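Tutorial handout. Part one gives the primary structure; part two gives the three-dimensional structure as tokens.
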Amino acid sequence: MENDTTHAHPRRRFLRNTLALGAALPLLGQARAANGNDDRADAALPASIRALQPVAQRVVPITVAERAQRLARAQQLMDEQRIDAVFIGAGSSLTYFTGMHWWNSERLTGVILPRSGAPVYVTPEFERGRTLEQIKFGDDVRGWQEDEDPYALVAQVLRGFGAGSGSVGIEETVPFFRSKGIMDALPHARFVDAWPVTAGCRRIKSPAEMALMRLANQTTLAVYEAVWKALAPGMTEGDIAALVAAAYARTGLRGSADVNIGKYTASPHGSDAPQRLVEGTPVIFDGGCRADGYTSDITRTVVLGQPGDDIRRVFDIVLQAQTAALDAARPGVAMEALDAAARKVITDAGYGPDYRYFSHRLGHGIGMDMHEWDYLVRGNKHLLEPGMTFSDEPGIYIPEKFGVRLEDILHVTADGAELLTPQSPSIDHPFG
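Part two.
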């Protein structure tokens, strides 16, 4: 998904979500009623969506033992990097290490990971109870009152770990004002990017993480197929997004999709313009859902009715490009090689050079965030390792006509790579 919620233009994302939510409310109400065995509401949903089964009961949460292993791995990396302590604020890395889900506000809440020993949590004193409810291990919570300086408290904790004049890592998504507050409170410390620690842990997925991602991606694919079967002429992009929301409600997982129709598929990020479905024109679904915080990201290009030969030809080229990237993936290969493999197929078919029609990188890392380390793009010479996960999403976009994109999640294995979901085999049978 190239229009991830954390990277897309905020206004575009707000407008799309608002439109989709408004359109989805009636169907969501029907779906919730259907899950409560209301036969009349159930009958109001399309048959393909009624056929979806709940999957939430199959979610196996990350265990406390695995989170403890993550801390041990982080401390090993901190030792290698000579980092005495790492500060992590609200966000996905805080959840990854501690299990806490926290809003990033002006009030400081975070965790300090020392090079050895147990973590220390810093939070407003009035949030102590909620903090203790959420953390999965450790119980050292330091609270600060509203008239106190939280950065002085963080500095005190860091000095206790011997980092007052040592090396302190700051997790890369911590806002600048917060980083500056910590730096000003600890003027003799050396501050570094904690990326080698956070990415060093998170970019390699465990079997438990892979199971959650596999479930999320399989659910998204099932939702897309159900919605495709429910498409009808005259539907707007909001109507289709509402079907997606209703379908996810049946599964018990929370998810959504951006939807674009016809000529608006020619832009990777689509358009805010009103769109309406007519037979023979392409529709692109792009989005995902979450299973215990781990996300899916799948794109499918479909057509209601008979696709034209031009769409069919472009679809086949994009499918070949996606396969070429998959075939190129194995441990020890440079990340840019996957982009090059897919781009060569597209360029050789006449849709080049470079970014002319395939206008974005091949893919992005994925896990708890829809976009995370690393990126499959020209110039990225980092090497693939077993356990890494990426989107494999080539596309061809022909201005004012149409676009085709296919996206599945690529998992690097010990001796190659796999996709977490079956590829879309053809525009005539997009789900096999």
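Part three, for discussion. The first strand starts at residue 85 and ends at 89. The first helix runs from residue 10 to 35.
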